[in-house]
Amino acid sequence: KVKKPWGYEIWIVWFKHHHVLKKIYMEKGNKCSLQYHKEKYETNFIVEGKARVLRGIHLNKNNIENALKFYNDLDDIDKYFHEVAPGDYWDNEPYEIHRVFSKESYLSYEASTSQLDDVVRLKDDSNRHSGLIKSEHL
C-alpha cells in the first residue's frame, strides 16, 4: 500500500520487467501531481466515482527543461480536460502531461509498464519531489 496526500494506491501485481496493476483511490476534492513520465505507459479504468482528467498535452522530449513553461503557456487548457465516470478509461503515453482531479471520491485500476519510479512532477500540492517517494510506502 502506498499512502498519498490525496488517498492511496495498492500495488496488486508488479512484474518488474513487464507490467504493473494498481488499485487507486482518490478522495473527493483532491488532485494528483501535474506530471509526465519519460518511459512509462499507463491505462486507467474508473470503477467508482467521478473525476476530471487533464491529458493530451504532449511534450517534445528534446525540450523537457521547459515543460512547465510549455504547460503554463497553453492557450486553451480546457480542451485537454475530460470528464470520466465508471466504465471510462484513459491512456497516458511517455512525455504526456497529465493530472487527475477528483469530483467525487473515486476508485480506478491502473495497468502500466513497470517503471514505477518514472514520475516527473511539474506541480504538486504537497511539494513532493519527482520519482518514487519511499516514505509513502507502508
What's the helix and strand layout?
Layout lengths: L1 E3 L2 E8 L4 E8 L7 E3 L5 E7 L2 E8 L8 H6 L8 E4 L4 E4 L3 E7 L3 E8 L6 E4 L15
Antiparallel strand pairs: 1-2, 2-3, 3-10, 4-11, 5-8, 5-10, 6-7, 6-9
Verbal overview:
- The chain is mainly beta and 138 residues long.
- Helices cover 4% and strands 46% of the residues.
- The protein has one helix spanning 67-72, and strands at residues 2-4, 7-14, 19-26, 34-36, 42-48, 51-58, 81-84, 89-92, 96-102, 106-113, 120-123.
- The protein has a six-stranded antiparallel β-sheet, with no helix packed on it. A three-stranded antiparallel β-sheet has the order 7-6-9, with no helix packed on it. A two-stranded antiparallel ribbon has the order 4-11.
- Strand 1 (2-4) and strand 2 (7-14) form a beta hairpin.
- The relative contact order is 0.33.
- The mean pLDDT is 96.
* Count of DSSP H/I helices: 1
Query: What is the string of SSEs from the N terminus onward?
Result: EEEEEEHEEEEE
User: What is the tally of beta strands?
Assistant: 11
Query: Ends: how far apart?
Result: 6 Å
Average the pLDDT over all residues and give the rounded result: 96
Largest sheet: number of strands, sense, barrel closure = 6 strands, antiparallel
Low-confidence stretches: none
> What percentage of residues falls in helices of 4 or more residues?
under 10%
Q: Which structural class matches the secondary elements?
A: mainly beta
Q: What is the percentage of strand-forming residues?
A: over 45%
The backbone outline, from C-alpha atoms, is globular
Nearest-angstrom radius of gyration?
14 Å
Widest sheet: strand ordering: 1-2-3-10-5-8
